[in-house]
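Quick one: structure for this chain?
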Amino acid sequence: MERQSQPALPEISFVQELWRKATHLGALIIPGGYYIFGLEKTTTLAILVPITLLIILTDISRLRGWWFWHGLMAIPFGRMIRSHEQGGDWTGATYILLASCCTIALYSKSIAIAALAFIIVGDAAAAVIGRRFGKHKIGRKSIEGSLGCLAATLLVAAFTPVLSFPVAACGAVVATLAEFEPLGVDDNVTVPILSGLAMTFVQKMIASY
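Got it. Here's what it folds into:
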């Protein structure tokens, strides 16, 4: 029997996109708390890992149709779920928390803070500007959205504590490229990991001279 293609799931509206990105910006509490409260890497991970496991459980319950999602979480968050997430993918919250744990574990504090701020702020700028003003498309992304991402990440780079601007700016450029072309992996993962790697490399290169 020939397999029939599934109908495309509707994309969320622009207003729903704004709410989703406002929630996404709330994740700034992760790099912000890491810096403001002077937390050590181990302490931060001890806080983040249980929260990440809870969000993974929430995502599993959504994908499996368990009561935990339909009875508690679907009402406040269900309308912000993207079409590909409705189709069986993890949510951005799961990806950003997993990426946060990995980024904090892998990189120095200042680089981890910048890399996480890049994906949180840059992704929000790219999505909102791209949805509102994006006219020149390359695949699913727009040049306007990517320019918005670059502007936002460079602004983050200018204010990142204890990190030189050339190092942070390099990370901002890599973050923008990774957001534009996530290499088949969710950009909530590729942006902080790749930008953190680039900043670590450039910082070591500068220190060697």
